[in-house]
Amino acid sequence: MCTTGTTGHEAACPGGARNARETTDRLLRAATRSGAHLIAEAALLVQGWAVLADPIAGAVYSTPAAAAADGVHAAADPYEHPHCLQRPAAGAVLVVAPGPTVPPEQAARVATTTAALLEVRGQRAAELRGEQMRLHTTLVGLLLAGHTTAVADTLGGNRLTHVTVYRLTGADVPTAHQVLWRAVRPSLAPHADACTLLGRLDGELVVAELHRGGDDGRVLRLVSRVSERHHLLAGMAGPLPLAEMPTAHSDAAAARHSATADRRIVPADAVGTSRLTPLLPTAPYARWAGSVLRPLTAAHQHLLLVWLRTGSKPRAATALGLSAGTVRARIRELSRLLRADLEDATVQAHLLLALRAPSPADGSGSEDGNGPARLETLPAGLLDTEAARSWARGLVGGLEPHLRIALTCWLGHHARTAPAAAELHVHRTTLANWLTQCAEHLAQNLGDATVRAEIHLALRATRTGPDDPAALPRRGGRTYRRL
């Protein structure tokens, strides 16, 4: 009989305490190696499987790998898996499924000890996390400053050639940063096939995934889950060559301005896409665009594209990492080069159309030999085709007269409600209600600057009368009368 002070299975046999110590020692040795080794040792001791499941990342560690899905399902719905033991561990859930011959006391001991060791590892990681996060932020800043070679050498030399950038904003960014850090488990180990950097810059979360030309989508899935859970809006750009990190950074910010609660992460290549450009005759469209954009460099075009996509100079400045004054000065200079008033809504819509055009197949830079094209007007045969008119009718057809007039006026004021309401002689709340009706009728996001540009073109293409405030139907004073 064992000495007093022992209970249960250990009291029944002197070997019980020895077996418990051996179990603890094996788990301790595994924990000093890695979390994966600890989970593997736990699965071996219970002669079954063990999974550490995270609500964002899914299965963090799993032994065997085939048990990952079962572990995640068991963590999500424990009542459906009564045979599994579950313990909270380091912000995740440890799920252990013992074999049929393992005593329940031993399985419970393994699960409890493993969870405690995972907590210790998590606390140690948390102590180092602040310093690691600052290092990541520094590396992201170096990439944006153009020191790509130095960063690439630090992370693995020439193995990392491309980057995909995510930019997330929202009230819960600090918490999302911590959650995403645990889910991604970033490492700066050299010679890896991929490396993820997470940094906090100017109140937003920047995720830079460095890889060799393509990614497996894992980081995208994690960013999507974090965005949904913490109500963040995100823009994504890439993959682009590592040297183009600043471009990817600004493109991600431009895309983020098109994100909504229904679509929380938007890729940059989806911003500005439309059903219109494929309908335009390719050759004249490309020649006109090439002629219009001839005075501009690639950097000029990128600045204009970000400005038009974000919808304002301050937002463009934030996306490009410049001051608002610098962006205003450069746009004034580009207005001079293009010989057009870039503050005009129609000119902006035409410019966005030109920036999205394919390159001229013959390299021609003029239109029909008549000199450089102008942004104020489009060439004949571009938007006045039956295909374009059909597109325009499908987009804005059916709008009631007062909604059409109000929408046209609002777009002419660059989506500013106060001056549009003043010109229409209606209250701002009335105009806001009309714009809501327009958005519902058109099934479009009027908060997206590129969507507004296309609606502006569609309204002009389908205009049959004066869409001006003077034609707004009324019934005395400011009272609106439906037709």
Automatic annotation (TrEMBL):
Region (Disordered): 1-21, 463-483
PucR C-terminal helix-turn-helix domain location: 303-357, 406-461
Record InterPro entries: CdaR-like_regulators, PucR_C-HTH_dom, PucR_C-HTH_sf
Name of this protein: PucR C-terminal helix-turn-helix domain-containing protein
Organism (species): Streptomyces rubiginosohelvolus
